[in-house]
Amino acid sequence: MSFWQNKRVLVTGGAGFLGTFVVEKLRELDCSNIFVPKIEDYDLVHIEAVKRVYQDTQPNIVIHLAAVVGGIGANRENPGRFFYDNAMMGIQLIHEGYLRKIDKFVALGTICAYPKFTPVPFKEENLWNGYPEETNAPYGLAKKMLLVQAQAYRRQYGFNIIYLLPVNLYGPGDNFDPQSSHVIPALIKKCVDALEKGENRIEVWGTGKASREFLYVEDAAEAIILATERYSKPEPVNIGAGFEITIKDLVELIVKLTGFKGEVVWDTSKPDGQPRRMLDTSKAEKGFGFKAKVSFEEGLRRTVEWYKKQSTKV
Predict the structure, then answer these.
(1) pLDDT digit string (tens) for 38-55?
(2) Which residues are catalytic?
(3) Residue 245, class by beta-carbon neighbours within 10 Å (0-12 exposed, 13-18 middle, 19+ buried)?
(4) What would the CATH number be for the domain defined by 8-170+215-240+278-293?
(5) Residue of 61, 92, 225, 231 with fewest CB within 10 Å of its CB?
(6) DSSP string spanning 141-166?
C-alpha cells in the first residue's frame, strides 16, 4: 500500500510555484485527500485562520510551503513584513499541528538562513556560524526560527517535524513580476521583453561576480515527497543540485537561450547579495535517496519556452 493512501495532507502554498508541482506529484501517488488553502479564505499569518484550517481539514500531514518571498529588491523593501509574516505563519502552524497531534509536519527553510560568509559547499552544520547576508536576513532568520522550534518540539513533545533547506528554485510557472521575482525569471523576462520590443540593451544588478546554485522546481517537489515519506530526524537537510554558477555566466546562458543579441549593462551600484552559494547535498541522498535529475541548461530551456508561450498569450 502506498505511503500516501488514506492520508489527509494539508499543503500550505499549494497553489504557488513549488506547491503546484508538489500537489501534482501527490496526485500521481494516489493521494486523494489533499487540501490547498487559499489566502482569501485562510490568511495563515493570523491564528484564527490557522486554527480554522486545521479544524476544516483534519490533516495527518502538513507540508508547509507558504512563504512571503522575493528577490534582493523585494527583501530590501519589505524586511519587516518578510520577517513577521513568515515567522507567524510557521510558528503558529507548527504549534497548532503539535496540539492536534498530527503525524508529521514538513517545514521548508531557505538557503537565505545560512551565514553570509559560509564555506562552499554549504554544509548543514555551518548553519549557525554567523549572521545571514543583510538584504535577506529578516526572511532567512524568520525561517531559521522554525528549525529551532522543530527541534525543540521534537525534543520536548516527540513531535515528528522535519526541516528542509532548499536552494533557489526556478522553472515553468515561476514568479516573473519584476517587483518581486528572483534572478532567473527576472533575467528571462528582461531578455524576452527586450526582444519583443526591439530593444538592444538590458540592465542587470550587481557585478556578476556572485555565484548561485539553482534547483529545477520539479526536482524540488520530488525531494519534498521523498523526505516526507522517508526522513524523520531532527537535523536539517539541504535540498539542491550541488553546483554553482556566477551571475555573469548565468546571464550569458540566458542571453543564449532567449536569443537576445543586445548589450548587457551591469549596474554596480546595486548589491550582489550573498557572495557565493552552493549546497552540500550528500545528506539528502543518504537520508532519503534524493538526487537532482534535470540538468541546469535543460531546466532553463524549459523555463524560457514556458515564459515565451505566456508572453505571446498576453
Answers:
(1) 999 999 999 999 999 999
(2) 139
(3) middle
(4) 3.40.50.720
(5) 92
(6) HHHHHHHHHHHHHHHHH---EEEEEE
